[in-house]
Design a protein that fits this description.
About 25% of the residues lie in helices and about 35% in strands. The protein is an alpha+beta fold. A hairpin with a 6-residue loop joins strand 1 and strand 2.
Length: about 375
């Protein structure tokens, strides 16, 4: 009996020890999870704070560029001489003194505002960029100034990414039921979820002088209709994509003599152009000099669906940069000891808004009316 009691006591002791160890392991594990969650939450907050500080740098960069556009000499000189320096904003005098090493983010006025542990440490502004990028909205036009740093003869348009809104995420396809490179337009219902948009391009090039009469006689309008072959395009075709010559017709239709046919643009079903775009068209526009480029514009309209668009300029095989059309900002923000970097493009416009069109309609327009000295008549036209 004595041995039995000792054995029962030893079993109870081992049970207590193992239970204690188990509770200790669970407690330590739980505490470790809490600490990790707390660290993750802290890092997320710091990351968001650093991102917000970087965006503050982008906003101040907008102020510097706008100040230069409105005649601020110090801002202009800072962009010209120190655009690739981290302290270009402070050198402009628009925000802070040139002696500061970083710009602290505050709320309220600079003297009495609350100071957070946030700052942007480096902001660079590149006024000249190698391309113009934007998100095209279906049936909404985008007017792009073709102001360049040198002469150019080709306008390169790339569009439609795999992750564009409305895309199925699959390989690009031609319109439904198409089996050949036909120059036809199709109903929107046949435009598949993975079919790139049709791009309406209008190049306006009045030369070094500009007046309204020239708008009816200069430039060219083309419809770039995508064609996606079953076998993907060869690597040799990736440099220029589809090479085209600018149409001689300033408008979509030029009177009753002829209409503008569509221009077939061969697209990559695996989005190979620049590693991300499905379609690419290189349009030869003849030589446009640097001085004449100040009056040259490209108007794009994405039909059937929206698309990501990239526009670049070439002179032969050489890239020609845009001159102050879409400045690029590289901003680094800090929150405590965590840093975030943001790259952004500025579309702040010039001193006037570029006109899109005189009137934009979805349905028809009724113009049946008359006005005289004695009155007016609405006519009998009924738009539908």
């Amino acid at each position: 009996m004595a041995n039995t009691h000792k054995q029962r006591g030893a079993a109870s002791l081992f049970a207590v020890i193992f239970a204690t160890l188990l509770l200790t392991v669970l407690t330590v594990g739980f505490i470790k999870l809490m600490i990790l969650d707390q660290q993750q939450a802290t890092n997320n907050n710091l990351s968001q704070g650093a991102y917000d500080a970087a965006l503050a740098g982008v906003e101040d960069a907008k102020r510097v560029v706008r100040a230069a556009q409105t005649g601020n000499t110090a801002a202009t000189q800072a962009l010209v001489n120190f655009g690739d320096a981290c302290n270009v904003i402070r050198r402009s005098g628009v925000v802070n003194g040139a002696s500061d090493t970083e710009t602290i983010v505050k709320s309220g006025t600079l003297s009495t505002g609350q100071v957070f542990n946030q700052a942007y440490t480096c902001v660079k502004i590149a006024m000249n960029t190698k391309d113009f990028i934007y998100k095209a909205v279906e049936d909404k036009s985008q007017v792009i100034p073709l102001r360049a740093t040198g002469d150019f003869d080709t306008v390169v348009i790339e569009w439609y990414k795999r992750d564009d809104e409305g895309n199925s995420g699959e390989d690009a396809t031609s319109p439904a039921n198409e089996s050949s490179m036909t120059g036809l337009l199709y109903n929107k219902s046949t435009w598949g979820a993975s079919t790139p948009s049709l791009m309406r391009t209008q190049i306006i090039n009045p030369g070094e002088s500009f007046n309204l009469e020239q708008l009816d006689k200069t430039g060219s309008t083309m419809f770039l209709r995508p064609y996606v072959p079953r076998s993907d395009i060869p690597s040799a075709s990736l440099e220029n994509g589809t090479s085209l010559t600018a149409s001689a017709h300033p408008r979509a239709t030029d009177g009753h003599a002829h209409d503008n046919d569509v221009s077939i643009t061969t697209c990559s079903k695996s989005f190979r152009f620049s590693g991300t775009y499905a379609c690419k068209a290189s349009i030869n526009v003849g030589t446009i000099t640097r001085s004449a480029s100040a009056n040259a514009f490209l108007r794009l309209n994405s039909i059937y669906k929206g698309a990501s668009v990239k526009v670049s300029l070439k002179n032969g095989h050489s890239i020609v940069s845009f001159d102050g059309v879409q400045p690029a900002v590289d901003s680094t923000g800090r929150a405590s000891n965590l840093f975030r970097r943001v790259e952004a493009r500025l579309q702040i416009g010039d001193d006037f808004a570029y006109p899109d069109n005189a009137i934009e309609l979805i349905n028809s327009l009724c113009k049946d009316f008359s006005v005289t000295d004695s009155g007016h008549s609405y006519g009998e036209c009924k738009p539908y």
